[in-house]
Fold these 3 entries.
Entry 1:
Amino acid sequence: MLEGSAVRAQKQLVLLHREDGPAPKGTVDWLNMRSWISRHLHLACPRRVFSKRSQPKLLELYQRVFEKPADRHSDFSRLARILTGNAIALVLGGGGARGCSQVGIMRALCEAGIPVDLIGGTSIGSLMGALYAEDRSHSRLRIRAREWAMEMTSVFRKVLDLTYPITSMFSGASFNSGINNVFKSKQIEDLWIPYFNITTDITASAMRVHTDGSLWRYVRASMSLSGYLPPLCDPKDGHLLMDGGYINNLPADVARSMGAKVAIAIDVGSRDETNLTNYGDSLSGWWLLWKRLNPLAEKVKVLNMAEIQTRLAYVCCVRQLESVKSSDYCEYIRPPIDRYRTLEFGKFDEIAEVGYQHGKTVFDVWRRSGVVEKMLKDRHQEEFHNTQSRSN
């Protein structure tokens, strides 16, 4: 009946799960049978939701429940914020190993009592965001992110994955295996928190926003740095997908278009280092290697391939980034991580701690200045009060 209805209102499917039960699975089957669904949400519910009680008993039970202050982190609070247009989005930018700082910031975010209703990211941000959306636990996020980061430091794995560099230096098999081991067969539709990530479609020369499908594949696609990894072939249409940082490195605007009232955007992209060595018209890698190995040689500052790629990605997104930073819906955060290189995943603990300390400072300022209170305020109630004030 709804499928043939002329009503254009968006229809959301709410799936209830026991809070002590297994994680969501097979959501795509529910959605495929309901083509009229525009969005879906997973809710972890306490036992009382599934209990069979008489109406008087239910009324008595919920009267006691309503006497307590609402838990802003509960799934029902998230549902209420999404349905009323008050959703808070967390947007995580790309930047290689600097993205490890996002782990610390998310811990500080949780400690500050700021809920997350939608999460999205680009490149390393797509990985960190997916980990959080799957477990909703900053402690589990840290453990899993650290394990993956330590794998990224393995020289042996990199050497085995080297290939003849027609398309890329590495075949991608080792990197694929690492991402696949993290997410297994998880689908984006099965994540607890609504999630999206960004890739660059070089077949259609367009930005792609992924909200469904194989999680590990689209995370991998969003992290596919040109020259290092080959593009990933989209299993849906065969299009070639590359790192999302080439087209939108901090997609707060996408979160806004998906209904977020406010987007907390964490930027870990490359910043321009201007004090670089002038090496002339050509550059020998052997000369650079000698400079690095010889303790008596004068140090030179030359960008490596990963840094050049991330800088190119950042340059392409400068205008979009400035637009996001100046918008009224975005709360922009830039941790002090410029001294860390793109592939320094071995410094995970140090970088994560930098993010945590910076996050604590920022969120404390937000709390004292009323930013957090404004985030949590019902925008409809705020608009009503503004209208009343103007009429008076």
Note: Residues 163 and 171 are 6 Å apart (CA to CA).
Entry 2:
Amino acid sequence: MSIICGLPILECVYCLGCARWGYKRCLHTAGHESENWGTATVEEFAPVPRLCRLILSVYEDDIRNPVWAPPEGYGINPDWLILRKTYKDTRGGAPPYIIYVDHDNVDIVLAIRGLNLAKESDYACLLDNKLGQRKFDGGYVHNGLLKAAGWVLEAECDVLKELVEKYPNYTLTFTGHSLGSGVAALLTIVVVQNRDRLGNIDRHRVRCYAIAPARCMSLNLAVRYADIINSVVLQDDFLPRTATPLEDIFKSLFCLPCILCLRCMRDTCIPEERMLKDPRRLYAPGRLYHIVERKPFRLGRFPPVVRTAVPVDGRFEHIVLSCNATSDHAIIWIEKEAERALKLMSEKDKFMEIPAKQKMERQETLAREHTQEHRAALQRAITLAVPHAFAPSPYGTFGDGEGSSSFASGNKNSGLSMKDKPRERGKVGMN
């Protein structure tokens, strides 16, 4: 009898819990996540629209006769295209990609396309992972994406080395969208750990821009490599926010809204402190750039604002219930809004009439601020007891320390010293 009398109370508690969840979810918008972040400058955000167009060009069968080009074109000189690999060339080892030498911007770019819903090899890459399966460089990474990154390095190591040595003043940029963003981010880490294979390239010459990034590495790695890896997120994009394994997302692609809603309810009930202390939980990599173009309870799009930070806690932990959660993942929209944001920032600079000398000083100041912010994020990760997080080196290097000099394969008991076997490091993705 007492149990029956208690049922109405349980129902009331359940209804109140659901009402609270709905209230928080409806008021939680993507803009709130980055409202305390700093505003990006023209200099640091300038490469993003250009790299988005390069990624879009990978979808073309013939770059000299483009079919899907944006209104202003790709901005590519076909004669500067070094190579182009298709699915036929990669044989399922990695998504298609191009290597392009951008002489106008003094940059060597390897751009990787996103998921192809019609290709089984892309699904195989996504499904090749289990929670905590692959440990690498003192953290955890997505196994399938790491294998794809290793495949690309093995295939293009000689080409990249030749270009890096031929153009010693050029940066080496890895970029990709969605599936390709995860491959590009992990490829960046593999290259940094194998710099001897690219002619001992300096770390500061290597960088990555992950567009609509997949959650591909644990929090300690995401923060540690924030000095060279940058992630770009458009407003409500679902992929950087959901900790649901990629393999589960794309298994249920046709019921994606249901999966996102259920995951949203689950994450609301899990304390963030518990999330941070799970060493196997994967995150969007590096420094985050958040393009915000919509406001809550208002129709239409507003002039986009780009915010940036290296957050440790509050790192896109909750899904936003929005009808734009999937459309904001599209590379076409990201390129369009990134270009709009860059034009607005450029117009503001012109209006302020900033002298060239002052712009150079601002770039130097920005570099120092980014370094300080990166170190502060590493220190905060230690304060929050993030697993495997360690203090930065006083000499400003992160790849040569003991904590990052080895990795373990899928078997946690087996390890490989990178210093003892440098030639085997690049083969990490092929095992």
Note: Confidence is low (pLDDT under 50) at residues 396-427.
Entry 3:
Amino acid sequence: MRSEDLFLVLDKEVIFDFKANPFWWPEFSTFWVVIGAVLTQNTKWENVEKSFVNLKNAGVQSLKDVANLSEPSLANLIKPSGFYNTKAKRLSMLCKNILDKFGSFEEFMKNVSRKWLISQKGLGFESVDSILCYACSRDIMVVDKYTLRIFEFLDFTFESYDEARQWLEDIDRNAVYKVVGSLSDNELFARYHGLIVEFCKAHFKAGNFDEKAKKALKNLL
């Protein structure tokens, strides 16, 4: 099995309107991606959206607005996302560090490095690559817990996060383009990650894939 084989199986199975939202992640290329990448840790995206509503109702329109909130106030606003005290502390510090280092979200988008993001407390590889892919429009694939579930089912093992990421990125673009049309690498990797998440959200329940998912994935074995 090659990466494009997995992509095309998922693309056939997943129902999602990529024409309306080609980069999948909500509010792509905005500072909300940075906030969402922190808040979505260990919780469902629906809970993050509730926190977004609270933040927007409180007048948050920029990273600076988040940085200017007291940690107790921020924690109260993001309470639906769970672990709110820890997340408030880490999110506040991240926003302040971004502004101190880059001056603005726009400069952050253009100039941030993966190394710098990984050095920030509370950001693992998945969160870092989500920010790079969806906030900064970088050509990088996100590997999340759903991706690992698929690899486990297919009996694929990798020695590291980056090895798995590189396998996914080593995709035959021409084979994909024949089915979905030409895409930039950023759009391709955003879509690929979105396909994985949407597939698993629909078919991975109570620790197992349902029969429809198993049938689709077994075509790759």
Note: The radius of gyration is 18 Å.
